[in-house]
Amino acid sequence: MPTYDLKPDLLKTYRSEVTAPADFDDFWAATLAEARRAAEAPRFTPVEAGLKLFDIFDLSFPGFAGQEVRGWFITPRGTTAKLPLVVRYIGYGGGRSLPHDHLVWPAAGYAHLVMDTRGQGSSWSPGDTADPEGSAPASPGFMTRGILDRNNYYYRRVFTDAVRAIDAGLSHPAVDSSRIAVVGGSQGGGISLAAAGLDRRVNAVMADVPFLCDFPRAVRIASRGPYPEISTYLSVHRDHIGQAFETLRYFDGTIFAQRIAASTLISVAQMDTVCPPSTVYAAFNALPATDRTLIDYAFNDHEGGGIFQAREQVAWLGKRFG
Predict the structure, then answer these.
(1) Has 186 been annotated as catalytic?
(2) Does the pLDDT value for residue 1 go beyond 70?
(3) pLDDT category, 84, cuts 50, 70, 90?
(4) For the domain that residue 21 is a member of, what is the CATH number?
(5) What's the domain range around 41?
(6) Which of 16, 55, 82, 144 could cysteine-pair with 138, CB 3.0–4.6 Å?
(7) What is the pLDDT of residues 169-200, one digit of tens each?
(8) Is 302 one of the annotated active-site residues of the chain?
(9) What angle do the packed helices 241-248 and 228-236 form, to 10 degrees?
């Protein structure tokens, strides 16, 4: 397909019109404090998966409201030195899958924590974490669950889980607490931006074609899901447009990007019909960090850089973590 978004020279300077609510930081500080009060200790259960070069643990940790979130924790077998931690968040509809899907980072010498995404994991990879919270009427998918109330919105729970996953990783004795990275593509990229914006312990962010950024523009121009879930909902609930976008201001990746102090690597694809390139540039241009890198794939859709970007990430993080 042809490119359809802003021209390259306009993308380089494009900024979202979304602004942070006055109580944005207080809202998230209270949300995380509440989750931590409800916490139990994470559980790391050894798993024999036939992968002889790795130590693999089935992870269970308390997320939003102390609710159980599942994951994997994988390290190179036999390592005695403290390891940098890479926390991975999964793309929309996917779950934690099997540990065999997550070997690049432990093979590169990192402790790797993979967070399951609550309620997802039945579209393209299996998941094991329920979302026990209900919601008001919503369109199919996750984007509009609780969209009229910031306290009940689905991604309040997911972003809280994401920070609690970092807490869980730091509780393991193999982890070097001074070297923490987050990584993910699409939804996982958006979650990575949120986690780094909420948690100053994160030193490095790798967000590929990140989702959940610049909602007002994305909802209006993305031709492929999941953003159209919101436009479908608003086409029915015509009287709730302002209320819905007010909720989304608390969950916009461009707002979280403004709060990131970590080194950041972002990828964008010019032909991406899921996460329009202008919305990705909006997040990148909002970053205050001086150590920021954008890799632009001119002829790719939502697959972005794929394995080429994975190669870039391993080299990029190696330079920063040693």
Answers:
(1) yes
(2) no
(3) very high
(4) 3.40.50.1820
(5) 8-321
(6) 144
(7) 999 999 999 999 999 999 999 999 999 999 99
(8) yes
(9) 150
